[in-house]
Write a structure and sequence with these properties.
The structure is a homotetramer. The longest helix of chain A has 13 residues, at about 60-70. Helix content of chain A is about 25%, strand content about 30%. Chain A is globular, with a radius of gyration of 15 Å. Chain A is α/β, with parallel strands linked by helices. Chain A has a single domain, classed as L-asparaginase, N-terminal domain (Rossmann fold). The N and C termini of chain A lie far apart (about 35 Å). The interface between A and B is medium-sized, with 34 and 34 residues.
């Protein structure tokens, strides 16, 4: 089995720009992260040309991500995505009913900041993507959610089911 | 689903003792690690009374770990273990044929050292333990291995199948 | 010799708020930082009641910092301050001609973010403050600047003399 | 003023070798550390050909370090050294009465391990080396010690004067 990992940006990949004095995007940190993870399972890393905050994501971006999934030779796909609109992108992909396992994950604290959950979440997603049946999922907080039954509870900073 | 996580020590949990000038064991870092992981899935953490290097593990230790698994109310168990004899302990548990999912993981670089794979591996294990069928597994390097078909390639520092 | 360290906020002490998704201020990280530094020289830590970005600092804040320095029993004072208006606050203190050594320092990257210069800068400041003659200084980039001959080169992200 | 920084190894520069499962020496981490420190003061970094634990340092090593200091064009020299025999090497250099400022520093916890004092100590040493009068000093725990009045209190893990 080969995994495809699609990096779209999001909190996971935010980088502190010391000249601007704020968190923004630079080169993706995923190549370093994957090296650190010491994976022997083959991985195709696809870094989107423009890493963005998921609040800035528009329908065109979601269509392009859908196209990436359609084009993917790999049946197991992890998408690293901002948490704020992870659900919206998951819905676009879920409706497309591809015969692939697509798992969204992200982070509440950027990878490069102390106490980040990014590496845990990526490990979790890389695990479940190999075992789930085809479909679209959100993997956050140590849980797997179905794309059509998940939402972010912004006041608590965690993902929960809809009901 | 509730997870049980059993901390036995191993490289994952090694701590630098600045007075002795070497890596040893102190309090388990797992409580901090789990907080950082932002889990909402319930977790029972069981820290063994004496954290040890897996090269120092003797049969009595393995029998106690087996007993912990037998006693566990949780059907999904992650065991954090040193990599050098992870296979040996997995064999003791595998032979017992418990009706539970037991996933071993660990780290090549201690959690508190730069570039550690510990958090990724724990995330991976916490994911697959929720989806695998009952049995005993080793989850390392982004792969799931069966307990009776895994070994550590010490020169490469990775886990591989036996054949 | 006892050191007084006054924490005013600034990039050094910024903390990522995962619910708001931005860098802001919470509890000062200085108590942890000082523990980590393993100091045996006595230190009085004074954390200002409201940690702020130095771009938000107004004259009232500067007068209060001046008052803290005047009140200080310690003759050696390190002030942790945002870099953007470090020069302005140094000018207020410099003009007061106190018979104390006052050293400003800060960070270009927050203490809790990978690759931060915060700990180096604090070490540097805690060293020079013990050896300089009374006066007001800025200690950044491994250099000591006089309060009336320093400016931040914002495009390069470094401190330089005026000429 | 230009600084010379001589890296000899010691706890500061220890690196975890994941295949051997222990702390040892690899490439010096000083080039990365200095980049992180964002120095604008010119620095000549001299990494000794063989980085060693200071307990393994023999008289020949000390004579070579002395020779490096004699040959140094720079009048301000920071030596990164293991703490266990820092005093012994300082005595060899102190007895040579060079017309240079030589400051020893090191770390109780390796640079790459969580909670390390390495970066603070290096900052401290880089500061005081620019201000001290010629002589040989040990800079640890936020204090400057004279080479002939310093010892390591091993049970407390701190440097103290002899009396």
């Amino acid at each position: 089995m080969t995994l495809r990992i699609i990096a779209t940006g999001g909190t996971f990949d935010k980088h502190y720009d010391e000249l601007a004095g704020k968190l923004t995007f630079s080169e993706s940190q995923l190549p370093d992260v994957l090296k650190r993870a010491r994976l022997t399972v083959p991985v195709e890393l696809e870094v989107r040309s423009s890493l963005i905050d998921s609040l800035d994501m528009v329908d065109k971006d979601r269509q392009e991500i859908l196209q990436s999934c359609k084009n993917s030779q790999e049946k197991a796909i992890v998408i690293i995505h901002g948490t704020d609109t992870m659900r919206e992108t998951a819905q676009v992909l879920g409706a497309a009913k591809l015969d692939k396992v697509i798992v969204f994950t992200g982070a509440m604290i950027p990878y490069e900041i102390a106490n980040s959950d990014a590496l845990f979440n990526l490990g979790f997603a890389c695990g479940v993507v190999q075992l789930l049946t085809p479909g679209v999922y959100v993997a956050m907080n140590g849980q797997v959610f179905l794309w059509d039954n998940v939402q972010k509870d912004r006041s608590a900073g965690v993902f929960v089911t809809n009901s």
